[in-house]
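Onboarding guide, step 5: your first structure request.
Type a short instruction followed by the sequence, for example:

Predict the 3D structure of this protein.
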Amino acid sequence: MVNPEITTGWVCIASSGPTVSEKEIKPEWLVDMASSYDPEFYTATMWPEHNRTEPMGHVMALKSAVENGITKLFAVLKPNLALIEVNKEGKLCFCSIEPRPNFAKSGKMYLAALGLTDTPDSTGTTALKFSAQGVTPRGVPMQWAGSYVEKRDNDFFNLLTHAKELNKQFQHIKSMTHDMTKQFSVTNAPTSEPMNMDINVITSDFRFSFSQRDGFLDPVASAALTSALAQSSPLLSRITFLHVADPHAAQFDGFKPGLRTGRRIGERFEVKASPSHTPPELTDMDSGTVFSWGELSQILGRMTQQQANEVLQGLMLLAVAEDIIRIGFHGIAAEAETDPSAHPNGEDVARGWHQTAKDADKAGERVLLAPVVFDVKGGGDYADLDAMAYHLVNKLPEAYRDDPRLVVLVGGELLRAHKQAYIKPGQVRDKDQRMKIADMPVMTNQNMPRNYFAITFLENMMVITEENSERVNATDVNDSKAWAMRYYRHSGYSLGEPKAYAAFDAISIAK
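The system replies with structure tokens like these:
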């Protein structure tokens, strides 16, 4: 099914000066956020009332402007179907910024996330409103904000109706799961009034929305958890999550290119599939987030049971999603016991995607082992990322070199060095104007190695989990006066086709 792009025009999400709660938004914060924002480096997600529960879209671009002496921050937003439906009911119509100083040690203020609310703290923000009247030619982004609304043809709304039906089906499955898990309380009746509940009561009655009381994840619950993790990151939403019954069986991937159609006289025409088959390396993975009782009191003060469940589950999902990406790019081997102090990026937790490709390419034909220097002044091996990407493309098997699915994966420090040298300052880049390297899309993430550079299909990157191995629970850690959420599974990383991955193994950046 076609996925129509829905984006807003420029909407005001914050204004400098005193706020309703008598705080102050400084003009330089808004200017910094506009100049530093880059969705290719880190995309701000929109959250309802700032709660990390169900994501409602992303911020695609920022700019600042001064109007009547007041500095304003404007954004182009990409809402998802959930936000559109809620907004049509007159809810979550305003934006509330989440500025983060010295984001990723950049020294600048950055928009880390965007809250959606009915009670904005900043003055002068645009009221969001969705409309569905009229016609606009295909291929033109739909504007959804304020009083300016571009129009779509009936085909678009047929697609939207189909998407609504799919969403209803998912909500029905989710509702069945919720009924099964008795999520919110021992009486199975969520409280809607704010209460100053005892933390012991909240934690003893905490339930994951996708888990039964004992924490074992059946196939439906496992699928719900996987979906939630995939939605938490633009990167995770495009890689492959696979559950397997036999952790030792080779995984077959049949997407190898080649002609499959023809004819023979007197017999059927056929071509052997010859799929790649990679035995996965699965290992025990145990994720845990521990809160002291004091921290819980500050986080959950005056929340209902349902609100507390949503906040705590959101924190856990975010932590697990970050670790999946971090270990996938940094992982070298699965040691019997891990040491997060010595290996802060999970190098000893599991063998990640890059290491998997490296182990499958002992001769270094695609994972290039010789160290290279990136110097935009021309004093190293490469002066721009385009030349590096073209070099890697030529290392792939010929059948993959022109595949439109190829994506350039690049670490943040390497990408910034390239942009500072070759991208015009202040240039706005949104989804339709996104920078490309060697005419290929670019994907970056704050959990990649800072000098990482590779080319592959995102679908080629796999997270494999053994069926019936997942378990989640929340429990007291009495000896430590703390409370913990835990997620255990037998899992690992793999590449569907290792030969469809090319990378530099060691890159240094000239200063």
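Each response can be followed by summary notes, for example: Residues 11-155 form one domain.
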